Amino acid sequence: MRNIINGNEAVAWAAMEMGLNYFSHYPGSPVNKIAPAIYELNSKYKGSVVFNDAINEHVATLSALGASLSGARSMVVMKHVGMNIAADPLNYIGYTGIRGGMLLVVGTDPGAQCSTGEEDPHWYLPQINLPLFEPTTISQIYYQTKEAFLLSEKYATAVVVFLPTRLCFNHDSLLTDESKIGQAQREFKFIKNPASYINVGAQCVANSKKLFAKMETISQDVFFGKEFFNANSAIGVITRGATFGHSYESILRLELSEKVHLLNIDMTYPLNEAKLLPFFANKKEVVVIEDQGGFLENSLKSLFYGKIQTAMEGKIFFTPYGEISFSSIYNFFADKFDIAIRQMGENLQAPHEIEVPERLGTFCEGCPHRASFYIIEKVLRAEQGDDRWVIGGDIGCSSLPPQRADWLLCMNAGVGISQGITAMASSQLVISTGGDASFFHAGISGIASAVHNKVDLLHLVFDNEYIAMTGHQASLSSNPKLDHEKLLYALGVDKLFTVDAFDLSSYEKKLKQLVHSRGVRVLWVKGACSKMLPAQAIKRREAFSPTINSSKCQDCTLCYRELQCPAIVKKTTNLPHFSIDLDRCKRCRVCKQVCPNGAISANVNWMKLAQALLAKDV
Ligand code: SF4
Ligand code: SF4
User: Fold this and answer.
1) Which of 215-224, 263-272, 381-390, 561-570 has the lowest mean pLDDT?
2) Is pLDDT of 84 > 70?
3) How, if at all, do strands 457-463 and 430-435 pair?
């Protein structure tokens, strides 16, 4: 069947056609759409994939290894930063080897287009010592995912596939074959193999030796790459991943195909010296074009040190940070070959870099986190009226207006960094924050450690019932819900309250109570994501129509500047200066509670409210 599919779906199609048996993941952009695509294909074409929506990448990786050791073809998916969480098991998978083909698919994000940061995970590869594919197009994602499964089983090694954001959400037309889904029959049995699976001391060193030998064999046997343009040219260009497309197009548009010899390397670890060496034979210079920190350039320089005369550079021309854009590659070629771009006609000009105003992000209308930060700041201001108070931030939806926290770096940085600050800067009032998904991901250990070390910690968990930021995947707060109160009491927290994010007076009261007590205190703030309740939202819409009463509004701007709900808009004429856009308003009624002048009325339709109450939705 011919399909228009994106990079995420290309992985899903290839894996399903290869008879995927086990799929585990921790959601994260840009690879957050692989799981839904596999769910859909599995149900539509009657596959038999076993799913694990794992609590974090560590668990996801180990469970995929377990499935593989039982003979299943398995795949584990995570984003670049997830490799940090999975790094511990990843360092051992090379030693154990695998049985059923096992793929680790990682979303990379040069330029941090859909992530908190742009960490370059390439440097893990020499450490974990597993083969790495870096496809360049949607069709190459599809074919190389299949090749990766075959390579995995042939050499009994897990194989890594890196997918940059640029490719994950691009679309292409691809011929897929649904008739292959669910066809492969495999027998699943764990076969004991202590020599490979018990990795301690001398045996671990022996397996490390075997792994180096295996990777040496792969580097000699396997090569995935392709050459383009003039093989006789003395100028070579080497690319990997998304920079291939930009380089290829630049060479064509600047009419340089006779002057350049282009090599794209699809399997960038380990490198095949014998296959690569001929490329350098007639080259005076080679330019390596790649995103981020120069992993390929380093690897090539190391591989050919003292063996070639060719001058090879990359990162002296391109930044080691951010995404290498088409225009920077295009301009590089134009400069190098002394082409005056503007004289070549409009169609050959590089696209303009469009300057857009900085937008720092905000919470959605009706978002429970808006109420949370309003209350946190109100309480902190009242308790410690200067700027000494500290708010520990976590990544996820609660970081959308980034300026509201004092730091944002990685998952659970709130609960972690706060412990050091409260210990050392005890005169400052510290509130750490984090989402429910972060809490279950690795925040539990942060709380347990605080209890164990008797830290004075006040932590707020924003429970919006989903891993909302990456596409509303289920968390342990979704149905079936894990009982957070039992869990936290079992961990030994000193005080725990659960509050409704939309009930501001009770929220404020409980937070003040916790601020004035000591020990490990947790405030569990419940408030579902406003994007995930369409049926209930409709009922709310029917029951309330908040408006600003012009005779009562004093233009104090509290609802507009402090609460910052996007549904409250500034008018250019007539008093009051603010009004509520009912098309955007989610009827959370937080603004009504914030207004000090009673100017915002809910305008209740009592009949509809009774219906909503009966449906337990207010
Ligand atoms: S009720 Fe008020 S705070 Fe809530 S979404 Fe509507 S305008 Fe915004
Ligand atoms: S908080 Fe109330 S009084 Fe102040 S601007 Fe908003 S509606 Fe008017």
Assistant:
1) 381-390
2) yes
3) parallel
The reported pLDDT for the residue numbered 347 is: 47
SS3 436: helix
Q: Reply yes or no on whether the pLDDT at 145 is more than 70.
A: yes
| pLDDT value of position 611 | 78
In whole angstroms, give the CA distance from residue 95 to residue 538: 55
> Of 182-191, 338-347, 374-383, 572-581, which gets the smallest average pLDDT?
338-347
**Both 20 and 145 in a single domain?**
yes
Based on the fold, state whether residues 208 and 230 are members of the same structural domain: no
Under 8 Å between Cβ of 34 and 25: yes
Q: Is 468 helix (H, G, I), strand (E, B) or coil?
A: helix
Same domain assignment for residues 216 and 229: no
Q: Could you tell me the distance, in angstroms and rounded to a whole number, from the CA of residue 580 to the centre of ligand 1?
A: 8
Element containing residue 371 per DSSP (H, E): helix 368-383
For the stretch 452-469, pLDDT in tens is 999 999 999 999 888 887
Same structural domain, 378 and 509: yes
Looking at the CA of 577, name the nearest ligand: 2
CB 142 within 8 A of CB 10: yes
In a domain, 288, yes or no: yes
Ligand 2 centroid–CA 548 distance in Å is: 8
Residue 354 lies in a domain: no
What pLDDT is attached to residue 559? 92
Q: Tell which atom from ligand 2 comes closest to the C-alpha of 576.
A: 8
Interval between CA 507 and ligand 1 midpoint (Å): 17
When pLDDT is cut at 50, 70 and 90, the band that residue 362 belongs to is: confident
User: Domain check: are 40 and 174 in the same one?
Assistant: yes
Distance separating alpha carbons of residues 471 and 477, to the nearest angstrom: 15
Tokens 């088409």 — which residue?
326
pLDDT in tens, 281-293: 999 999 999 999 9
Q: List, chain by chain if needed, residues with CB within 6 Å of any ligand 2 atom.
A: 548, 553-559, 576, 578, 595, 597, 599-600
Range of the domain at 575: 534-614
Mean pLDDT estimate for the chain: 91
Ligand 2, residues 574, 597, 601, 603: which to mutate, most atoms within 8 A of Cβ? 597
* Segment holding 36, helix H or strand E: helix 34-44
| CATH number of the domain to which 557 belongs | 3.30.70.20
Q: Is residue 574 part of a domain?
A: yes
- CA–centroid distance for 128 within its chain: 21
Q: What is the model's pLDDT at position 345?
A: 43
Q: Name 78's bridge partners.
A: 106
Cis omega before residue 576 (within 30°)? yes
**3-state DSSP of 534-591:** HHHHHHHHHHCCCEECCCCCCCCCHHHHHCCCCCEEECCCCCCCEEECCCCCCCCCHH
> What average pLDDT does the segment 233-254 reach?
96
Q: Pick the last residue of a domain from 159, 188, 221.
A: 221
Task: Give, as one character, the DSSP assignment of residue 350.
Answer: P
Looking at 80-137, list the stretches that DSSP marks H as alpha helix, in order from N- to C-terminal side. 82-96, 125-128
Q: What is the pLDDT of residue 281?
A: 96
Pocket lining: 590 vs ligand 1, CB cutoff 6 Å: yes
| For range 422-440, the mean pLDDT | 91
Q: What average pLDDT does range 571-591 have in this prediction?
A: 85
HEC string of 191-214? CCCHHHHCCCHHHHHHHHHHHHHH
Q: Do residues 512 and 541 both lie within one domain?
A: no
ipTM of model over 0.90? yes
